[in-house]
Structure formats: C-alpha cells, structure tokens
Specification:
This protein is mainly alpha-helical. The chain has helices spanning 3-24, 28-38, 49-59, 78-95, and strands at residues 44-48, 73-77. Helix content is 56%, strand content 9%. It starts with a helix and ends in a 16-residue tail after the last helix.
C-alpha cells in the first residue's frame, strides 16, 4: 500500500476512535470512561512526527512546525486531521487505493 493509503488508514482509524470519544463525552459516564479507561481525547489525536508532517501537508497547512522529529509523538487537532483525511480519501478513490480492508462505512461526518 502506498504511503498515502497508509496515512489514510491511520487517520481513518484514529478519527473513528475520536468520534466515539466525542459521542461518549456527551454524558457523565462517557466522560469518566474517556478519562480513566479509554484515555481518548475529544480535541487532539496523538501521532508520530513523520505522520504529523504528512497529515499537515495533506491538510494544506502552509507552514508546518519546525523541529518536528519523526521518532517523537505529537498532538494534532482533530479538525486538521479530518481535513487531511478528506483530501486523502479523495486521492485514494481517484487512484484506486483501498485503505479499508473491512466493510465499514462512515456513520456520518467525522469531527
């Protein structure tokens, strides 16, 4: 699979988990689960430096941060990740790249 397809798969899975965390955060028990059990964030996603730079490029961020090291983990805002995923999704469809081996469809917009 191409690098774009791998990043699309990575963002797809992470955004699905973030979407679940946002839904859970709407009620008290879900917020406890997110904080104590799941460790899920409703605003940011953690990702390696090399993936962060690629995602920011796909999202159209003009000036990615300097000093990002590929071997470290960083936080990316979910809206930027979703923008990168949308661009990657279109690229994958255009180039016939299947980044999902399973038959899941998005239930709605990714936040």
């Amino acid at each position: 699979m191409s690098e774009g397809g791998q990043l699309a798969r990575f963002l797809y899975v992470r955004l699905r988990h973030a979407d679940d965390a946002v839904r859970r955060a709407r009620w008290f028990g879900g917020r406890i689960y997110n904080n104590m059990v799941g460790g899920a964030d409703t605003t940011y996603m953690e990702m390696p430096g090399h993936s962060l730079l690629m995602a920011m490029e796909w999202a159209g961020v003009a000036a990615p941060p300097k000093g990002v090291r590929p071997d470290r983990s960083y936080q990316l805002r979910l809206d930027v990740a979703a923008k990168a995923f949308e661009a990657l999704h279109l690229w994958c469809r255009k180039n016939g790249v299947n980044y999902r081996d399973w038959d899941l469809e998005l239930s709605g917009p990714i936040t």
